[in-house]
Backbone:
């Protein structure tokens, strides 16, 4: 199947807006969750993180200290928002 053209993408977006507008109120949350999932899966970094295998090794002493330090950084506001961190990574 060929990738959508600009015209077909615009038409699909128009149709999606129409469908969302016709949904019953009780289905809006489900539609939102699914569309948000699709949007997130389009982000290669987020997709890699979500699909990464779970670390099943015991936490080392160094990892426990790093986690505690990170919690303290959060508590004291020494953090960088996700969007800013992503911008910095993509600019590097």
Residues:
């Amino acid at each position: 199947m060929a990738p959508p053209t600009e015209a077909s993408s615009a038409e699909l977006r128009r149709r999606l807006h129409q469908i969302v507008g016709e949904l019953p109120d009780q289905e809006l949350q489900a539609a939102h969750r699914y569309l948000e999932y699709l949007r997130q899966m389009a982000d290669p970094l987020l997709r890699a993180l979500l699909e990464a295998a779970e670390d099943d090794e015991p936490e080392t002493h160094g990892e426990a200290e790093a986690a505690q330090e990170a919690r303290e950084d959060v508590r004291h506001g020494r953090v960088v928002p996700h969007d800013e961190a992503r911008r910095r990574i993509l600019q590097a």
